[in-house]
Amino acid sequence: MIEGTWTEWFQKVFLKYCYVVGILFLACMVPLEVVRQLDGDLGLGLAFLAVLLIVPLGFFGYLKLWGDGGVWGSELTNDN
For the whole model, what pTM was predicted? Predict the structure, then answer.
């Protein structure tokens, strides 16, 4: 059962899943596009670098939004 208001559910659950799916989409599509546009070792190297940038930045953004002290973090709720 979902407790709380619609706004709380939307910000804490729905947007969280959309964010994660979006980051995973970027982590898949950007390297594939780099490999498609640039042939050879340069394309593979840049694709690997793209993954190494997107995943940590996505994780950092997730923590800033939903981590402790984040915009929609767990400190906003009164879980007793």
Answer: 0.78
Distances (CA, A) of 8 to 5, 68, 78: 5, 16, 12
Tens digit of each residue's pLDDT (9 = 90 or more) over 14-31: 899 999 999 999 999 999
- The first and second tokens of residue 53, run together, are 């940038």
Phi, psi of 39, deg, nearest 5: -85, 160
Distance (Å, rounded) from C-alpha 80 to C-alpha 47? 46
Which value, in Å, is the radius of gyration of the alpha carbons in the chain? 17
Task: Quote the CA–CA distance of 54 and 1 in Å, as a whole number.
Answer: 34
What separation in angstroms does the CA of 11 have from each of 3, 32, 40, 56?
13, 31, 43, 22
Which 3 state secondary structure label does DSSP give 79? coil
